[in-house]
C-alpha cells in the first residue's frame, strides 16, 4: 500500500554554519566544500534505486533563501520546468540522476529559517552574554524562549503547521493506504534550514516546540518523515530506509 513520505533537506555548509552563527534572513552563499558535499549527497541518495526517486516526487517546497535554492540546484533532480528563481551558480555538469522529474517547485515563506531577530549572525554563547547584559538571564533555549526582535516558538509553530496541513490534505490524504500503482506516491521534498526543519519534524509528530528536539540535521543532510500502519493519523519520523532493488 502507498505510504507517502516527506524528505527534509538542510542546505549545505556556509561560513556562518561553520562558525555556529545563527543565520535567518541573512542571504549568504554555500562554501565550496558545502557545494561539494551537497553534490555527493545527491549522487548517493537520489536516483531510481535510491532513497529519493525524482520521478516519484509530487511536489517540492524550497525556502526563499539562496543557500537553500543553491542546495536544491546541486541535488540535480532533473526538473523539467524552469526554476522559480534565477539560478545561483553553474549548473551541475553531471547527468541528472533522473530526467523525468515533473514535480512543481514552489518557494514558500512557511519554510524559511527561524527569524532570529536580535540574535542574527551571533553564536549561542554570544546570545547568552547579550541576554545577561539586558537582564534576561543566561538560560536561553530557542525552543521555549524564541528570539528577541524575531520569532517566538508560537510564530514558528503557526507557519509550519500551515504547511503540514497543506501537505497532508492536498498530497497525502488522497493516496495513503491505496494500492501501489493506482495512485501517485505522494512523496514531497522540502529544502530549507536547520531550526525550521527540526521544528517541522516535531510538529509532524505532534510534539510542541518547547518539548525540544533530541535529534540533529547536519548541513547538507537528509531526513525522512512518513506514517505508521499506512495511516494518516499516525505520523512518524522514519529513522532508516532500505534501498530499492530491481
Amino-to-carboxy terminus distance: 18 Å
Mean pLDDT: 94
Strand order of the largest sheet: 3-2-4-1-5-6
Radius of gyration: 18 Å
Strand segment count: 6
Main beta-sheet strand count, sense and barrel state:
6 strands, mixed
Number of helices: 7
Order of helices and strands: EHHEHEHHHEHEE
- Tell me what portion of residues adopts beta-strand conformation: 5-15%
Shape: globular
What structural class results from the helix and strand content?
alpha/beta
Helix content: 25-40%
Low-confidence stretches: none
Summarize the structure.
It contains seven helices and six strands. It has helices at residues 15-19, 32-45, 66-75, 124-133, 142-145, 153-172, 194-204; strands at residues 6-10, 57-62, 104-107, 187-192, 222-227, 235-238.
